[in-house]
Design a protein that fits this description.
alpha+beta, Phosphorylase Kinase, domain 1, 6 strands, about 40% helix, about 15% strand, globular
Length: about 270
């Protein structure tokens, strides 16, 4: 038994569920799982959640006539099956997927991935940090009464322009009123060592949730995932140059609806500006 076979990291398991691993690494992880039945059962649960999320957001997966041309120009890389959606710009944005996690519960693919094998660990590391930072920001700021945000809801245009300039990406602020949440405001905060944005919302009972945005330096996509830690749920995704995370201490079904609505509004705004 080699040391390599004994050493399977959490990132390896996440990449295994997401389909990021090479044939050799996949075989190595599967051998390790055979010898670790408890973790194998956990991975099966992640895969089951991936299936549920794919079904939940399958209506967003649509073809584009440019798919064939882009696929034919991809050499030596893993390519997505037909049915994924592509956008132009910066070498072509990969089909927009949704990302969300679990404190050890990565779900699988929302949309097919296109990743060079050598980049998978780096991309997984970027995605891994997003829900942790989102949960930390939620715990720190959602409990604040007087200083929860830097800019209030009465200055939405200024807030969107200011944070958009700091992220070097045009922003719109999601309207979650139909789900019972109104905007509290927003603030600038660091995400992966760069400028990030945090929008905060609350319902009539004062229950709050946050939407965090941060730069994605590798311009790679991840799947829609969910993370749960200490009662705090986070749904997250990376779409082109920006990573998004929706966090709250609310029922998961409600947070899924919020994440779905945020994704829809961010995506529609991006298409309108392109």
């Amino acid at each position: 038994m080699t040391d390599e076979l004994h050493t399977v990291s959490e990132e390896d398991l996440h990449a295994y569920v997401d389909g990021f691993l090479s044939e050799a690494d996949r075989a190595r992880v599967e051998q390790w799982l055979e010898r670790n039945p408890a973790r194998a059962e956990e991975v099966r649960q992640w895969q089951g959640q991936a299936t549920e999320l794919r079904a939940m957001f399958s209506t967003y997966d649509r073809s584009d006539e440019r798919d064939r041309a882009m696929l034919s120009g991809t050499s030596g890389k893993h390519v997505a099956p037909s049915g994924s959606r592509w956008n132009a710009g910066l070498g072509g944005r990969i089909a927009a997927g949704l990302l969300l996690f679990a404190a050890g519960t990565f779900t699988g693919l929302y949309a097919p991935h296109i990743l060079a094998p050598g980049r998978s660990a780096q991309v997984a590391q970027v995605a891994e940090s997003l829900p942790r930072q989102a949960q930390s920001a939620f715990l720190i700021y959602a409990s604040e009464v007087r200083h929860a945000v830097e800019v209030g809801p009465d200055q939405q245009t200024h807030l969107a322009n200011w944070l958009g300039k700091r992220l070097d990406h045009p922003l719109n602020i999601p309207d979650l009123s139909k789900l019972g949440f109104s905007l509290v405001g927003g603030r600038l905060l660091p995400v992966n060592g760069k400028a990030g944005a945090l929008f905060m919302y609350e319902d009539a009972s004062g229950q709050r949730l946050t939407v965090l945005l941060g730069r994605n330096p590798d311009n790679r996509e991840t799947s829609f995932r969910i993370d749960s830690s200490g009662g705090v749920e986070t749904f997250y995704w990376i779409d082109g140059p920006i990573g998004y995370a929706v966090t709250g201490e609310v029922p998961r079904a409600l947070l899924q609806k919020v994440a779905d609505e945020c994704y829809r509004q961010f995506e529609n705004a991006g298409e309108a500006k392109s």
